[in-house]
Design a protein that fits this description.
Length: 672
């Protein structure tokens, strides 16, 4: 039950993340002008952001030209082709290495139609592609609808590019609409991020810090406000500044580097021991005295420190949202990332500020022993279990091998078994009161806890445990996996002429000693090797941008990749390439690259492929799936986190279909 709740929360977070990472440099508005009683002029206006350009209808086939498709109808007829009314720029395009025609800032297209009946509805779609000097977005389809004759003249509409629908609009909102939408998405992301496993346990820390006996109420409220403002200031100001100075890799550092993750693990362990009653976390007496002396002068460093701790610890769960905002900032945008960081941090700070502002809501509960202490002990068990995730991320990223899957599961099984025993009153901590009988709520919690323990036990022998796939180490780290033993026997049988199909690679993959694909898939972890094999076997590439610390990557592998239909296609139709964007393994000097994005030298596997994803696809969130041919042609729109198996199967089938037909939606420059 607990695992399914965590999965639901992760899905919600990713839904917001995906909305936050959508770039919309082109906005379309549609209007109609009446020429006569039977003739109208349809106007298609594209507002193009600075540094971006929209391609003309008159270009070679290399990049997709802007095209208009009208649905046939007996109610009207087209008078001539679609005309281009804006100034066309004809210059060399570095993305496609040729001279092309395109529009900057604004493009206006017009189509004349003749009405054959009193009222006519003109519907259709347009397809366009936009690029800047270093990258292109995938071609986008936009539907349009004009009601002519009986409808008001020059009715203006604006397009919501996320779903292609045409929405009625009284005015052109332009950039303001984009900023408001980005703010709302970021705000929702902040609310949902509170429920993630590395943020939610921080709430009791907030409560315990602000629940001080004898504290002046006015001073306490001021501290609570300072705490909330500090969270917003740290995220908005420092985050945006770091985005410009350090680029998007700062979020990757905080979420994957061993130092912050080990520190976060230790913080969770320390607070768990505090909740168990081993010691009480208090500020040093000299600091308390100093704070009291400066109270009237605004000397409140405690809330600021607590806010900084919360922000740092939360990066492991808020990284995808924050990382996307940092990409926008490092790419040259200034206002948008600040708006996004403010919206995210505002929502993120609200509940913490609320609990800090009104700790008296909980002061009626016993302060030692009784119900409140039981809650603290339960939270202590949870923090001890959830804190392991941080240590696991560092362990996987640096290949220490100290917290493999079965070790991690063994610790969780013991922790939650002891939690169940505690709920039954069989274990007593220092501040606990006697439990003369077990109440119904405690019994129900104990039943859920022991059920969770029973669910985890088969995982010790390799059971998938799909409900926990994003929160425990990957299956490949398991020493004794019955599924893998059976799989290896099947391979051996196939190799001896048994007839079973074996998925083979062209040459031994680099890094196979410490990087692995799930479900026995064979593939590569090096881009150049995969390209070479793709040409040799005449198969398209399935590129998986993933990470050791990526919760949603593990969920996709456990719930989508494991489906027989998906596995069959990955084995038979594709060369699988997994690019780990957070691996810390240092590359040989000859493989170091200088980033086209930020100009910095990339010396590790993770930095090299994180830069590859940002440079080629303008996205730094994982998982991210790309279907591509060996020449850099992307076969269909890339996909991100989505647990819809049928949609993923269609995605794979579309890639094969376009590969055989020689179709691509856009092309990236070869090489890294």
């Amino acid at each position: 039950m607990k695992g399914k709740v965590l999965i639901l929360l992760t899905i919600l977070v990713m839904a917001v993340n995906l909305g936050a990472q959508i770039l919309e440099p082109v906005k379309w508005q549609f209007s109609s002008n009446k020429i006569s009683d039977t003739e109208y002029e349809l106007v298609f206006t594209a507002s193009i952001e600075n540094k971006w350009h929209l391609y003309s209808q008159d270009i070679p086939m290399a990049p997709p030209a802007t095209t208009f498709t009208f649905e046939e109808s007996d109610d009207f007829e087209l008078l001539g082709p679609v005309t281009e009314e804006s100034k066309v720029i004809e210059e060399f395009d570095p993305n496609f290495d040729m001279v092309l025609k395109y529009f900057s800032f604004e493009a206006v297209f017009k189509q004349k139609v003749k009405l054959l009946s009193e009222g006519a509805v003109v519907t259709g779609s347009l397809n366009f592609m936009c690029c800047d000097d270093t990258k292109c977005l995938p071609p986008t389809d936009v539907d349009y609808r004009f009601e002519l004759g009986n409808s008001p003249v020059s009715a203006l509409t604006e397009v919501d590019e996320e779903d292609g629908a045409v929405l009625a609009s009284a005015d052109i909102l332009g950039q303001k609409a984009s900023l408001w939408g980005f703010f709302i998405l970021s705000f929702l992301g902040g609310l949902i991020a509170i429920l993630t496993p590395c943020v939610f346990p921080m709430i009791p820390m907030t409560i315990s810090f602000f629940m001080k006996d004898g504290e002046d109420k006015k001073k306490g409220k001021m501290q609570a406000l300072l705490y909330g403002f500090s969270i917003i200031a740290i995220y908005t100001f420092i985050g945006s500044v770091l985005a410009v100075v350090a680029g998007p890799n700062i979020a990757n550092f905080l979420s994957t580097h061993w130092l912050p993750n080990v520190l976060f693990f230790l913080i969770f362990v320390i607070f768990a021991f505090s909740f168990f009653g081993m010691f009480e976390i208090v500020m040093p007496s000299w600091a308390v005295n100093k704070s009291d002396e400066g109270a009237d002068k605004g000397g409140f460093m405690g809330p600021v420190f607590m806010a900084l701790t919360l922000v740092l610890v939360s990066f492991s769960c808020t990284g995808p949202i924050v990382g996307t905002i940092l990409v926008e900032s490092a790419g040259g945008a200034v206002i948008k990332p600040i708006v996004g960081m403010f919206g995210f941090s505002l929502a993120f700070a609200l509940p913490f500020t609320f609990f800090a502002f009104f700790p008296s809501l909980l002061q009626g509960l016993p302060k030692s022993g009784g119900w409140l202490n039981s809650v603290k002990v339960v939270l202590g068990f949870l923090e001890l279990a959830l804190g392991l995730k941080f240590l696991s991320i560092a362990d996987q990223t640096y290949h220490w091998g100290i917290l493999d899957r079965e070790v991690y599961l063994a610790i969780w099984i013991v922790i939650f078994f002891l939690l169940g025993v505690y709920l039954l009153g069989k274990i007593k901590f220092v501040h606990d009161s006697d439990v003369p009988f077990v109440s119904v709520p405690r019994l129900m919690l104990a039943i859920f806890t022991f059920s969770f323990v029973v669910y985890m036990i088969p995982g010790m022998w390799g059971a998938p445990l799909k409900a926990l796939s994003g929160y425990i180490p990957p299956q490949s780290t398991h020493d004794f996996d019955l599924h893998n033993v059976i799989r290896e026997n099947v391979k051996a049988y196939a190799g001896s002429g048994g007839g079973a199909e074996v998925n083979e690679v062209c040459e031994p993959p680099k890094y196979r000693d410490f990087l692995h694909l799930p479900h026995g898939l064979e593939g590569y972890f090096d881009y150049d090797q995969a390209i070479k094999c793709s040409k040799e076997q005449n198969k398209p590439l399935f590129i998986d941008f993933t990470g050791h610390g990526c919760v949603n990557c593990r969920e996709m592998e456990a719930n989508v990749w494991s489906d027989p239909q998906v596995l069959k296609r990955l084995r038979e139709d594709y060369i699988v390439l997994a690019l780990y964007v957070d691996d810390k393994t240092k590359l040989p000097e000859v493989e170091w690259i200088t980033s086209e994005y930020d100009g910095k030298m990339k010396k590790t596997i993770g930095k090299k492929y994180a830069d590859f994803q940002i440079t080629k696809f303008t996205v730094n969130a994982q998982p991210f799936y790309v279907l591509m041919d060996a020449n850099g042609g992307v076969l269909t729109q890339p996909r991100a986190y989505d647990l819809d198996v049928d949609a993923f199967v269609k995605f794979l089938d579309k890639g094969v279909e376009n590969y055989k037909a020689g179709k691509t939606v856009f092309k990236i420059k070869q090489g890294i």
